[in-house]
Amino acid sequence: ALFSSLNLLDNSRAVYRAWVGTIFIVAIGVLVPHTMFWGEDEFQIFATMGPAKDLPNVWPTAGYSGFEMDTPWKALVVGFAKLIAVSFTVAGGLRGGYIFPLMCAGAAFGRFVHHFCPEAIPMPVAVLCMAAALHVAITRTSLATTLILSFLAGEPASLPPILMASLCSLFATAYLVRSIIH
User: Fold this and answer.
1) Region label for 121, one of left (φ > 0), alpha (ψ between -120 and 50) or beta (otherwise)
2) What is the tens place of the pLDDT at every residue in 60-85?
3) Residue range 84-111, pLDDT digits in tens
4) pLDDT tens digit string along 141-167?
5) Residue among 152, 140, 124, 150 nearest 176 (CA)
6) Are 169 and 133 in contact (CB under 8 A)?
7) Is 175 exposed, middle or buried (0-12, 13-18, 19+ CB in 10 A)?
8) How far is the CA of 119 from the CAs of 58, 113, 135, in angstroms?
């Protein structure tokens, strides 16, 4: 809606659209450096709530405020901030996509969920299931997402719960798909 109100959706204004998207992405990244990445290299840091200094593609890793994803509430902040950054990446027509960024946002949400029921849901399962559910809600690729997450994470035994999370997400968001993809 912001890009439409600024008349930036016309391809003749693609450079301006990219600049507006970039300004928002950088502003979010300065506040929450965990949102500044390209893909699967950062998934482990999200899943383990590792320090920002381990982010391979971000410098300086401290950001403006020295943000660290060291509590479940900060993991929730990272998840929402990454979703906002993804929306500006896609709306601005910038590289970076949404496949692994959506999975990483889901991993951050999984860390948040795991905090409230650590005995019931093992951490890898919580992280991978939330990553799968969020990704499937947008892309509608339940089987591919399940296979990618279970085998890239080295957790083939978690394939059944990831598949269930993917299918639940697929069915729960079935009525939204046309409006999201179009």
Assistant:
1) beta
2) 777 788 888 889 999 999 999 999 99
3) 998 888 888 887 777 888 888 999 999 9
4) 899 999 999 988 888 889 999 999 999
5) 140
6) yes
7) exposed
8) 34, 12, 25
Inter-CA distances, 93 with 17, 20, 96, 182, Å: 7, 10, 9, 15
- Is there a contact between 111 and 48 (Cβ–Cβ < 8 Å)? no
The CA distances from residue 51 to 4, 15, 58, 61, in Å, are 37, 35, 12, 9
Residue 16 and residue 8 in contact, taking contact as beta carbons nearer than 8 Å: yes
Could you give the CA distance from residue 47 to residue 125 in angstroms, rounded to a whole number?
10
Q: Which residue has the tokens 């960024």?
A: 101
**CA dihedral sign of residues 151, 55, 92, 28:** positive
Quote the CA–CA distance of 33 and 154 in Å, as a whole number.
Answer: 26
Pull the structure tokens for residue 37. 């990445």
In contact, 42 and 56? CB cutoff 8 Å? yes
Question: In 23-38, which positions are buried (b, 16+ CB within 10 angstroms) versus exposed (e)?
Answer: ebbeebbeebbbbbbe
> CB–CB of 51/5 below 8 Å?
no
Contact by Cβ (8 Å): 152, 72:
no
Q: At what angle do helices 123-139 and 159-172 cross, to 10 degrees?
A: 40
